[in-house]
């Protein structure tokens, strides 16, 4: 099986910074991409940013210029550096990985348990 373990959430004042980490482990054959999504109360889960194994990145418009996604392929780990945080960034942040396991050739999405990010005004 595959596990995604997130860390780094918390409470921060507006304008502050946080760094999230997500490590994937288990029976991983290859990772196509990893990314972060978020879900605020009463809202649908939305894309924040993704990064491919080749290093190509994609950001949602609300976070462009403030958030930076990076990865360490050797550690199967993805990071999200969040700067200039705003109250509207408050949400549960979920790590996502699209990968192949050693036992199944198709690409499958895996999710972390989520980490709370709260930005106070």
Structure explained in plain terms:
Strands 2, 4, 5, 6, 9, 10 and 11 form a seven-stranded mixed beta sheet that branches. A four-stranded antiparallel beta sheet has the order 1-3-8-7, with no helix packed on it. The chain has strands at 2-7, 10-13, 18-26, 28-39, 46-52, 57-59, 67-72, 77-82, 91-101, 108-111, 115-120. It is 0% helix and 61% strand. The protein is mostly beta strands.
Topology (SSEs and partners):
Layout: E1 2-7, E2 10-13, E3 18-26, E4 28-39, E5 46-52, E6 57-59, E7 67-72, E8 77-82, E9 91-101, E10 108-111, E11 115-120
Parallel strand pairs: 2-11
Antiparallel strand pairs: 1-3, 3-8, 4-5, 4-9, 5-6, 7-8, 9-10, 9-11
Number of strand elements: 11
Report the end-to-end length measured between terminal Cα atoms.
Answer: 40 Å
Q: Tell me, rounded to a whole number, the average pLDDT.
A: 96
Shape field: elongated
Taken as a percent bin, the fraction of beta residues is over 45%
* Structure annotation, total helices: 0
| Series of H and E elements | EEEEEEEEEEE
Give the fraction of residues assigned to helices: under 10%
